[in-house]
Design a protein that fits this description.
Blueprint lengths: L1 H12 L7 H31 L4 H8 L4 H14 L7 H10 L4 H13 L2 H11 L1 H23 L9 H5 L14 H36 L2 H8 L4 H11 L6 H13 L4 H13 L2 H7 L5 H27 L2
Helix pairs in contact: 1-2, 2-7, 2-10, 3-5, 4-6, 4-8, 5-6, 6-8, 7-8, 7-13, 8-16, 10-13, 12-14, 12-16, 13-14, 14-16
C-alpha cells in the first residue's frame, strides 16, 4: 500500500524515473514517511489504552521497595511498555530513589525506556523486518537487565546529587486508572497528539537522511565508510551516533538505508542504540540529578555494551 502510494506520487504524477537518484530518494521518502506515521499513530493509540493504567506515579508505586532479579525484570518490562520522554527522566529518577528502589534497578529502567519502545518495535517490524527487530529488542533488553547489576557494583549512590536524597515525595495517592471507554479513548488520542507532535520532525529528518543515503550515496562509498564490521568501525558508529539526538522511531529509516547499502547488521545496531540511549541531551538532563562520575560510568557501560553487541553480531554474520 505505501509502496503503491509512493509510486503513484513520485513516478506516475511527478514523472520521475525509478532509476534516477532523485526518483529513488523521493520514493523512499514518501513511502517511509507514510508508513511510519500510519504505524506510529495506530500503535500509540492502541498502546494508549494500556498506558492509561501506567502513569509515572503508578509505575513508581508498582516498583516501591522492590529489589533483586524480579525487580530488574519488572523495571526492564515497564521500561519497554512506558516510553517516557527525556523530560520524564528526572521525576522518574527522583521518584524511584525516594521509593527505596535500588539505583541499579532505576538505571535498568532508564536504559530500557528509550531504547525498547513498543511503538518503535512496531515501526521496526514494518520497515526492516522481524529478524532485525527481534535482534534489536533482545539485545536492548539484555543490555538494560545486565546493566542494573554492573552499574550497582560501582555503588553509584554516592554520586547522586545530595538534594535528591532530601526530597520526600510522601505517599501521595496514585491517580485512579482510566477505565471507561470514553476516558481511555481520550487518553489514547491525547497520547497520539503529544507523542506524534513531539517526534514528527525527527521522523522527517530521519527519513530525509535515509532517503539521501538510499538515493544519492553509492553502496561502495557507504561500505568504505562503515568498514567491514571490524571493532574500529563499530566504535566509530557508536561515536557518530552520540551527538545525533533522535528517538527510536526517527533513527529507523537511517538504519533501513544503511542496511540496504550493505552495512553489517551489528554496526547498524550499535549505531541505533548509541543514537537512542547515549544522546548528549539525555545525559545533560540526567546531570541535574547525577554527578559527573555517575554519568561517566553510566555512559561508559552503554558505549562498551553497544560496541560488544555490534562486534558480536558482525562476527556471527561472517561465520559461514
Amino acid at each position: 500500500m505505501f509502496d503503491a502510494l509512493a509510486t503513484l506520487l513520485v513516478f506516475d504524477l511527478a514523472g520521475l524515473a525509478p532509476e534516477s537518484r532523485l526518483g529513488a530518494a523521493l520514493h523512499f521518502f514518501v513511502m517511509d514517511v507514510a508508513k511510519i506515521l500510519v504505524l506510529l499513530t495506530t500503535v500509540i493509540y492502541l498502546m494508549g489504552w494500556l498506558r492509561a493504567l501506567l502513569t509515572p506515579e503508578r509505575v513508581r508505586a508498582m516498583m516501591r521497595g522492590r529489589s533483586g532479579p524480579g525487580a530488574r525484570l519488572m523495571a526492564v518490562g515497564l521500561g519497554a511498555v512506558t516510553p517516557f520522554c527525556s523530560c520524564s527522566s528526572i521525576p522518574l529518577f527522583i521518584g524511584f530513589v525516594e521509593a527505596g528502589i535500588p539505583l541499579g534497578v532505576t538505571l535498568s529502567f532508564l536504559i530500557a525506556s528509550p531504547m525498547v519502545d513498543l511503538a518503535a518495535i512496531a515501526v521496526l517490524l514494518g520497515v526492516i523486518g522481524w529478524q532485525t527487530t527481534l535482534i534489536y529488542v533482545l539485545t536492548g533488553l539484555t543490555v538494560a537487565f545486565v546493566g542494573g547489576y554492573v552499574l550497582q557494583a560501582f555503588r553509584l549512590e554516592r554520586w547522586v546529587e545530595d538534594y535528591v536524597w532530601q526530597i520526600h515525595m510522601g505517599e501521595a495517592p496514585v491517580p485512579e486508572p482510566a477505565t471507561s471507554l470514553a476516558a481511555r479513548h481520550d487518553y489514547a488520542w491525547n497520547e497520539v497528539r503529544q507523542i506524534v507532535g513531539r517526534i514528527w520532525k525527527y521522523v522527517l529528518i530521519g527519513v530525509g537522511v535515509g532517503a539521501v543515503i538510499h538515493g544519492f550515496v553509492p553502496a561502495d562509498f557507504v561500505a568504505r565508510i562503515a568498514g567491514d564490521g571490524s571493532v574500529l568501525s563499530v566504535v566509530v558508529a557508536v561515536l557518530v551516533g552520540v551527538p545525533m539526538y533522535s528517538d527510536a522511531v526517527g533513527v529507523i529509516p537511517v538504519a533501513e538505508a544503511l542496511l540496504g547499502k550493505g552495512v553489517p547488521v551489528g554496526t547498524v545496531l550499535a549505531f541505533m542504540m548509541a543514537v537512542i540511549a547515549l544522546s548528549l541531551p539525555e545525559m545533560l538532563i540526567l546531570r541535574k540529578v547525577a554527578k559527573w562520575p555517575l554519568l561517566g560510568i553510566f555512559a561508559g557501560y552503554l558505549a562498551v555494551s553497544f560496541v560488544l553487541v555490534g562486534v558480536t553480531f558482525n562476527a556471527l554474520r561472517s561465520v559461514p
